[in-house]
Amino acid sequence: MQPPPTTPVQTPAPQPRHLSALVLSVPVAMGYIPLGTAFGFLFVQAGAPWWLAVVASSIVFAGAAQFMMVPMLAAGLPLATIALATLVVNLRHIFYGLSLLHKLPAQPWARWYLVFALTDETYSVLTTLPADTPARQMVAVALLNQGWWLLGTLLGAVIGAQAQVGWVGLDFALAALFAVLAVEQWRSAHSTAPLWVAVVSYGVALTVLPQQALLVAIGLCVLTALALPKTKPAPQNHNVSGHPASAAKDRA
Known about the structure:
Blueprint: H1 21-45, H2 50-59, H3 64-74, H4 79-89, H5 92-99, H6 108-116, H7 120-126, H8 135-162, H9 173-188, H10 193-208, H11 213-227
Helix pairs in contact: 1-2, 1-8, 2-8, 3-4, 4-11, 7-8, 10-11
C-alpha cells in the first residue's frame, strides 16, 4: 500500500521585525553627541551663556545651520540675517518632507513635530521604517535624536563655560563655509546669475547698508534663482557603443 499523499505545510512569510525607537536612534547618537558637544562648546566660547546654547538646540535644532550661527552671532550680525541664512541652508528639508508626506502621522501634533525635528539623520531613519510603523514610534525616534543633540550641547556648554580657549581664527569659519557652498553651487548650477547678483549686491549694499549687506545679498540671490526659467539639460546623442556621438568625427 502506498502512503496517502501529504499536502505541504505552508509556513507564513516572516514579518519584518520592528526595532525599538532607542535601538534605531543609537547610531544617530554616536554622531549627535560629539557634534552637539562641539556646538555647545563653540557657542559658549563665542561669549554666550551656557543655557542659551541649550535653548538654541531646543528651538532651532538645525545642525549645520547652528554651527553657521556661531560666528555670525560673534560678528554681531542682525538676527534677520541669521534667520534668512538659516532658511537658505535648510531649504533641502522641504524636499525631504515632500518625500515623507505619505509616512507622516495624521495627528497634527505629531505631524508638526516631525516637520520641526526633521534632520538628515532622522530622515534616513524614518525612510527605512515599515509602512505600518505607528506614529508614536516615529515621534519617539525624532524625539530621541533631538535629545542626543541636546545632551551633547549641554555637555559642550558646561565644558566651554569652564575652559578658556582663544577665539582666534574661528571667526573665519563663516567665510570658509560660504566659500565652499558657493563653489558647490557654481559647479552644479545651470546659471551663475544668482551668484553674480549676490556678489554685486553685497558690494553695493556694503557701502549703503553695511549692517544689512549680507541680508540684501542673500535675498536678491534667492529672488534671482526663483525668477530664472527652469531649464533641463539637452539630451546627448549616443552611438552604438554608448558614448556621445562626436560631430567632428572623421568620415571614412
